[in-house]
Amino acid sequence: MDILEKLQILGAAAKYDVSCASSGSKREVNYGIGSTFTAGICHSWTDDGRCISLLKILFTNECIFDCAYCINRKSNDIKRATFTPHEVAELTMNFYKRNYIEGLFLSSAIKNSPDWTMEMLYKTVYLLRHKYQFNGYIHVKAIPYASLDLIRKTGFLADRMSVNIELPSEKSLKLLCPNKTKESILKPMEFITRVGEEERNFVSAGQSTQMIIGATEDSDRKIITLSQHLYKKFKLKRVYYSAYTPVNDDPRILKVEKPPLLREHRLYQADWLIRVYNFTAEELFEKDENLDLEVDPKVMWALRHLDKFPVEVNKASYEELIRVPGIGIKSARRIIKNRVFHSLDFDDLKKIGVVLKRAKFFITCNGKTYERHLIDLQPEKIKLQLTEKAAAQQRMQQLSFFDKEIFTSVITGEI
Amino acid sequence: MYNVFLYDGTFDGLLTCIDEILSTHINEDEVVIVEKDKYQPMFFDKPIYVTLDKNRSQELRQKVINVSDKMIFKKIYYCFLSESQNKETYIYKYIKLVLKHGKKVKYLYHDDVVNFVEKASKNVSREIGKYMGLMRFNEIKGGVLYAQFEPTNDILVPISYFFRERLKSFKWIIHDKKRSKLSIYDTRMIKFLNGMNLNASFSDNENLYQKLWKLYFKTMAIEERKNLKLQRQNMPKKYWKYLIEKN
Predict the structure, then answer these.
(1) Interface predicted TM-score (ipTM) of this complex, two decimals
(2) pLDDT < 70: residue spans in chain B
(3) Which of A129, A356, B32, B108 stands 20 to 30 A from A4 (CA)?
């Protein structure tokens, strides 16, 4: 089988892996080819609008496991291929020097045994770092059940490692992944966290994980609560959510017509709120099991707590400001820096970057509201205004704006 | 009536020119700075040409950094690289503001001059950011990497410094086709050349890797999520000309 065919099979098999981050690495090196860039760089965008930053491939798609949602499961009759470490290294180097990619994202199905697979991943990364002196970004999967020693050796060569948690509950995992247990995922995850805290240059861009959304009945509350736990306990850098795209016809999986993209988007927003905005899962899910699909989770929270609003922009603390819908981390910082020099009015806020469309219901500037009586509005009315506008835009086919808002944040989750 | 100051088109030339203006006591509103080669004489003008003086430009650079910071100086430089109309005159006025207010110039976003420099420099740094990812190198005979682009702004210098870090052990050439400028890196240092063009033929490997990249690009798109509009938003058409995956 030639390299073109292998790339086609093993690239296609990896496209559902969500992570594309190539940022935040702090490996200390001063030799060789390439570098990592703190902010990460996107090198292209596919026809679905997702960015390509890393050469994302599987080492092999031959699998001894039989997970219900996975295209590569043992029981599927599909074309199989396996790279050699040398082939992956050559591809990476040649793509890298042409500036097609920022580095390598190497995942794999489990062939022969978990240890055999992990050993191959290790060999590939070793080759790249030592023979080719490659200094770009490398993200490697840690294979469940692989020996911790192999994972450790690999972690010293990688910028990031990840173990996919796959499903948000043990029950779902049992149902869909008969060969994986909770321990087989959490053990290596915990190991990577621990070594990362003890050793320098071990997985210096941190650890991430991924879960599938919509293939089981797990609620948003369950998902976000689990993420919160993963951030706290395992110090994960990111949890990625992947709206399930039906690839197998399996009765154990919920019927999915189309991948639930809007739900995935809301989860990223909620994730962002707990990771960056100091919200807790408990705050976001006081009553409901699921996030509101009509408005973003920050608006949802604000509408339930109108007693905390309006917030006076010229006096409020940073913590209060970042809870206002339409005011993000950047805007809040700018507000605080700027108001030292002069008090801010609504025009200033626009220039600073506050999205008044949402914020206007929740703030005052020097005691004044944006429009008269605006603050007296009822939650239902505010919600109606915010959603009707979006709906109208959609009807008028001004889709570009709406799309942008939804999809640019698919990856970042920024609100 | 305007006092028209002419400079040689280089950044250091502009700084020398501004330093000269600052040492006189002309009313700010009567100052215009124009690049020598782009100047069209007007009947009542009194054009004054200021020749480049590295010491003076260095002095002004240091003065600006001392009263503010490197980030603000970078903004000025990026604004200079932009194609904005009258950028030189705005840069002069901006430097005056920096010398007066120091770092706090950031908070004068109401001011037209500050606004202009912010916008122009943001535009430039955005384009640099895009090309960090979207520049495509081809391997030509002899193993040298060769990239062509036609940036809106004159960003060859900063982008070359980025690739010096990135591709430090390869020889490469970056070619701004719009301005006929080249940067050449020989694994030790970069040389910048003007008025150059280049024809090169691919190495034996090149076609294979272009084919592999095109195939990979197509393979990674998820059909169920197809969204060409979003693709164009992130990767506007102006970049496609030299993108292998888009040709």
Answers:
(1) 0.92
(2) none
(3) A129
